[in-house]
Amino acid sequence: MRVQRALQYVLRQTHPERQHPSWWDLTELGLVALGFLAYFLVRGAVVDRAPDAMANARAIIALQASLGLWVEPRIQELALAVQPVIRAMNFVYFWLDFPLIVGIGLLLFWKERRHYTLLRDALLVSGAMALLCYYSYPVAPPRYLVDLGFVDTLAKYDHLSYQAQSMQPFVNPYAAVPSLHVGWAALLGATAFRISRSLLIRGAGVLLVVLQAAAVVVTANHFLFDGVVGLIVCAAAWYVAVGLQTHGYPRARNWLVRQEQARAQRAVVGRAG
Question: Angle at Cα 89 formed by Cα 109 and Cα 217, nearest 5°?
């Protein structure tokens, strides 16, 4: 009986058109928060492969150089000459990533539940895929390559450091590939195109991707290669999330409907008997 009541509750609370708040919402938000906490904790646990990370970073440099794309030192050199640009890029990198995702996620959760679910799934799936990359292919960010002249702009100009003692349990300094700063910005941009036809909103989505792609290079936190891999990972995650929306969740809901219909039928038979 308790199982049937639980299934009935889930069926009601997962109705696509439901708008009113309920206890189910707290469960949803709690599970998502737990998922992201697990992501950051697991990512921060793999930090003891510095030689591999440095070697892989230099391999990426060699690859980009062979393609004529080793431009990161020159880009940062130009940006360092204009301090307002550096400060702006620091702001984009630090504040227009996870804080922005949380804000938009909560807004969509309240106003556009379908789009929230799609974005949530894409973020969580891409995070899981990224963890596999971080574990199998650790890469040091450019700011660790001081011999090449890179500057950690977040630490130097805004005193923001991911290596602070309070942040260490959540940070893996060798998690440069993929760049989820770029990939998650692209997911927000894709969501902007999905929820609105407004040129302003869609333009903001595109601008966010462009700014974040520039910020990860200017702040010396990622190579161009990292951003490209981030886009590939998040495109794959988006594909999975769309599949869940169009096939996975409807099938699960149909199963719940069948369970409820079977329960109602048994109740009718029981009363008739």
Answer: 100
